[in-house]
Amino acid sequence: MAVEISTTDSQDYKFNPLNFGSLHFTVKAPNDAHIVLSATAENKPPKYEVFLGGWGNTKSAIRKNNEQPDKVIVDTPKILNGGEAKGFWIKWGGGFIGVGKQGEENPFMSWQDDESLNVTYYGVRTGWGATGVWTIEDNIYINTEDSMDYISRVILHGSISFSVDSANDAHIALTTKDKESEPMIEVFLGGWKNSASAIRYNKQTPDKVRIDTPQILSKDTPKKFIISWRDGIIEVFRDNSKLFEWKDSNPFSISHYGIRTCWGAVGNWRIHGAADEKFKSQIVSTPKPKPSKGKAPPAAAPGWNIDGPTLGPVTWVHASNGQIPSNALPGGFDVNNEQLYVARAEHNGALIPGKLVPSHGVVYVAWGGVENPKENYEVLCNCTGTWVKANDGEIPVGALSSGHTEDGEPLFVGRGEIDGSLTVGKVQPSHSVCYVPYGGLEVPLNDYEVLVA
């Protein structure tokens, strides 16, 4: 149910509680529509503020704790309209905050915080001469036809809560892309003429789990479900009770969910967002793979810089704000054919290989399910290495650790093809993939290339 809010020209926010890690809304205002995300219903730190249409409806920004300069400021001429409601979304999680336009999947501005704030309230206001009319959508409504095609959406957190009314066969897919692709986990609710439910992996049969659930769905009454995933454990709940679970021995980073109804059924879905903690099982923790402390064998001359940033022919050169040092190593190209360079940056205790995008003025590194922009970074220079094909976590002889996770596991420079780009990222052997930062997300690739000397 939508919440309607009117705001005057005031510096005071109107607060409401939040139930999950995203906010979808429309606002009709000529300029300066402001949103605060905070732990309490008060305008005080810790908090994030999002300013839409500031500076005379020419720019938008993200600010933390009243600190200046703003963390992000972008040109957004005429993004607001005093005579027409404009739609936006804000998503956050793991320190990431992104702001996008309604109907667009990627944010037009985002920022990665070094810490993660506990956001439980949002507030809205208009100022600098503006008044506003807001419609806050606390749910997402989707109608599905009788079709085998999934309708996909981005998800930044580890669970999804939803209601659906359907006669049978309400299906949910958990994937790494906005379309069907491997790896993929499917949850079938009310299949087999509304008699059973199941979990299927990569469309393989027999199903990983299948249980009898007679009349679990209804075409006249919405039924509420929750799916959560953590450490490879997929859990499915109905109301407060767990229906079934399955342990994936090779967990992957889930960035999208898809929904569909089929086998003669249509459906009306209401996506509530992330699940409340009370619905999650307390027995979901599994031991993480123990990171290897060893390195791949050193390569022959001209060789890598093994002992530090100043020895040997290969060096990591400090740079910032889009700077490209002399003899920087090209690593690929973006979808617009812009040259990308091999770089690395510190993030949350890790040192992560990633891609330098000069026109953006940052290096992007993959971590926590999203791509994280870093203004300060190091660029690989004086390197005469080659790219060797690999897959499923393989590290060719001649590769050398070029970073590490927050737990000390070595990371290697990798790259892979995605949507017509050739994108640089990190190979994490314990996860058996190369993660590349792309489209705002941390995208896992099973097939990739590794940089070796």
TrEMBL record:
InterPro entries for this protein: DM9_repeat, Methyltransf_FA
Span of domain Farnesoic acid O-methyl transferase: 11-138, 159-272
- One Pfam match, by short name? DM9
Protein name listed in UniProt:
Farnesoic acid O-methyl transferase domain-containing protein
Species whose genome carries this gene: Cinara cedri
